[in-house]
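INTERNAL AUDIT FORM
Audit reference: QA-55
Scope: verify that the stored structure record matches its stored sequence.
Auditor: D.O.
Record contents follow.
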Amino acid sequence: MPLIHSPYSGPPAYQYNGHLQTIIPSLTRAVTGISYERERLILTDGDFVDLDWIKQGQKRLVILTHGLEGDSNRQYILGTAKLFAQHNYDVLAWNCRSCSGEMNQAFRLYNHGEIGDFGEVIDHALQAKRYQELILVGYSMGGNITLKYLGVHGNQLSKAIKGGIAISAPTDLGASACLLDRPSNRFYRNRFMKKLLVKISRKAQMYPGRLDMSKIRQVKQWKDFDEFFSAPVNNYRDADDFYTQASAVNFMPDIAVPTLLLNAQNDPLLSAECSPEALAKVHPHIFLETPRTGGHVGFQLVRDPYTYAERRALWFAQRLTNA
């Protein structure tokens, strides 16, 4: 498909660069008026994930996937849930393993390439209520998971899945990992690392001898962390194997339903490789939109309670479902 010319008008003037467009919405935005109904889903390996529902008796469902160290109560998930619920969708915002406020039981955690859990969530939603139409929406890591799931399953998807939307998705993990080591991205790197190390330490306590915590002192760059901890916890051979198997860009050619990828050009956490223009130009189902501004999961609008990304996701979804 031709690349989409973005109509995004840009954020408020005081958010004058990609860092401010990323950080300010994350720290200051508050979305109210959402009440979830929580359900615990026991996975096939005996572990669990927690599902947060907005059930309105609709025949259409949007499934929302959060980003790295996020959850169903992040402002971007709450905003998307609220907007879709107002437009006659049921909503399922699921929490990856360890992200719902309670540590998961298995040794493994979650990661950018984990689509097995996502598939179980989708299958459960379809079995619990026979939704006629499903839309998958993911932010950041959740966008990569969404895109990989659609690519891996290709034309074998459930017919109920009408399309996908990925926002600020790091579709090339190796390239994006390098960006985290830039001095200008120290804020994000430290924030993610601090939270992940808490979980890794907990896993080391739960499963003595499975992780060598002394290697923390050897972490000099983000790839080291993935080599020593992310890969072994999630059953990858090493960091390079993790990046290869988890990066959605390696699976996107097989996507068989309409899919929107919305990545800002000034996103401080995404490399150019994360927005595969050459693929989008020739692919019949991938729509790539790369506005000049927006930051990472930012996309705020002037005097609007919703972000451009949330409104764009609804706009795309309504063209795929019987709105």
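Auditor finding: record pair retrieved intact. The radius of gyration is 19 Å.
Action required: none
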